[in-house]
Every structure is written in structure tokens, then in C-alpha cells.
Design a protein that fits this description.
single chain; 239 residues; mainly alpha; three-stranded antiparallel sheet; two-stranded antiparallel ribbon; 9% strand
């Protein structure tokens, strides 16, 4: 015998599917909660604007360059989603550069995708410089393979977009146990910015200023009051 499934509509609570029959204990009850977007579908708020795209490209270049330097030097990268969200909030609050929440979200997304693409590049492109084919290096100079590398990055970026289109529903819509903490935090930051919370941009820009000051004080082309590395003559490691 097979159990039967019925759908019950409850006001304000979505659809509840309950199993009936002898095998009802083997069926799992679940509820399709009613989804309410932060910005209503009938809203006419601008989203895909020229300033949002240009700022997103600029932030993608800045965070991409920073991640490329950090990844090649330290072997790891940092996510730019949350800093990009905070910077977008600060920029679109300027009197001459006002923008809505959808424009901020587009800028944040473009910046985060840019740094992610660079992170994939710095861990794959150098491999072509290390591969030997018949006793010769596959790539001897990155400048002579600029367009090949560009095509590889373009193909990787498009492949990622295609995969997220396919996997969006099973990973983001149907999955109940994947909270996506970073994306959730970015969304909450954008919402907090609309509510008037203005502390986050101050901390982010303050940290950027402090980092620039430290770089000026330790770099050879700057003041170099102190060095980045400390040599201890009494401590030597065996080779």
C-alpha cells in the first residue's frame, strides 16, 4: 500500500504537505514558507544604472589588485563582499552620488565577483609558468600570453555564472541547512545602511587609512621608520 499526500492551505503560513496512510510515519512534513523580498517586485527603484556598474568595476579592480598581491605574497586571499557592501553604502550616501539599495547591491556583487575571479587566476595562471613540455617551459613570459590568459579568465568567469544559474535552486532555494553566513551578513549590512546605521563605513575607511599609514612607514619608497622583517642574529635555523 502507498501513503497518500494532501496539501493543506493555511492562512499566512504557506502550504503544508502532510502524508496520510499506513506509511505516514515515513513521510517528512515540510512547509513552503511565504517569501517576502526586501524590495517589492512592483517597485520602480533603479538597479542597473551606469554609476552602479562603474563603481562596481572600480571596486572590482581595487579589490582584485589587493587580492592578487596578498595571494601571491601570503598564499591566501580575503573575501571582499562585506567591505564592498560597506564602501558601496558610504559612496551612495554622498549628496552628489545618491543611490538606492538595489544599486548598492549590484555594486557589491560586481566587486566581490572581481576579487573572486582574481583569486582563481593567481592560483592557476602561475602553473602555466611552471609546466615543462618536452624539456621546455610552456609559458616563458606572461606578456606574450596576455590574450590567452584573458580568455582563460573569461571562460572561468562565464563557467562560474553558468554553474550558479544551474545550482541556485538546489543550493539557495531548496536547501534549508545552508545559511550562507557571508552573503547573509552582506544583506544585513545593506539593510542596516538603509536604516541609517553609519558606523560601518567609518571603521572600514579608518582601517584602510591605518593600513596605508603602516605601508608608508615601512616601505622603502616611503619613510621606512621600521622594517617589515626582523632579523635575529642569535637565532638561526638549519638549512
Amino acid at each position: 500500500m502507498r501513503g497518500r499526500t494532501s496539501c493543506v492551505q493555511k492562512p499566512g503560513r504557506g502550504i503544508v504537505r502532510a502524508a496520510k496512510g499506513p506509511l505516514s510515519q515515513n513521510f517528512r512534513r515540510f512547509r513552503l514558507a511565504e517569501f517576502k523580498p526586501y524590495v517589492p517586485a512592483e517597485s520602480n527603484e533603479p538597479e542597473f544604472t551606469l554609476k552602479a556598474v562603474l563603481v562596481g568595476i572600480l571596486l572590482a579592480a581595487v579589490f582584485g589588485a589587493a587580492n592578487a598581491y596578498l595571494g601571491m605574497k601570503a598564499g591566501q586571499t580575503v573575501a571582499a563582499t562585506i567591505p564592498a557592501a560597506v564602501i558601496a553604502i558610504a559612496l551612495f550616501r554622498l549628496p552628489f552620488f545618491r543611490g538606492g539599495v538595489l544599486e548598492q547591491n549590484l555594486t557589491r556583487t560586481a566587486a566581490s565577483v572581481g576579487e573572486a575571479l582574481v583569486a582563481g587566476a593567481i592560483f592557476t595562471i602561475p602553473a602555466f609558468m611552471m609546466v615543462n613540455v618536452s624539456g621546455q617551459r610552456l609559458w616563458t613570459d606572461l606578456r606574450t600570453h596576455f590574450w590567452v590568459g584573458t580568455f582563460i579568465l573569461l571562460a572561468g568567469g562565464l563557467l562560474g555564472v553558468f554553474f550558479i544559474i544551474i545550482l541556485r535552486r538546489p543550493l539557495c532555494v531548496d536547501a534549508k541547512d545552508l545559511p550562507f553566513p557571508e552573503s547573509t551578513a552582506s544583506a544585513e549590512i545593506v539593510k542596516a545602511g538603509q536604516a541609517g546605521a553609519a558606523d560601518a563605513p567609518r571603521y572600514v575607511f579608518g582601517a584602510m587609512g591605518l593600513g596605508a599609514l603602516l605601508e608608508l612607514l615601512k616601505d622603502e619608497k616611503g619613510l621606512q621608520i621600521f622594517k617589515e622583517e626582523v632579523t635575529l642574529p642569535f637565532l638561526r635555523f638549519p638549512k
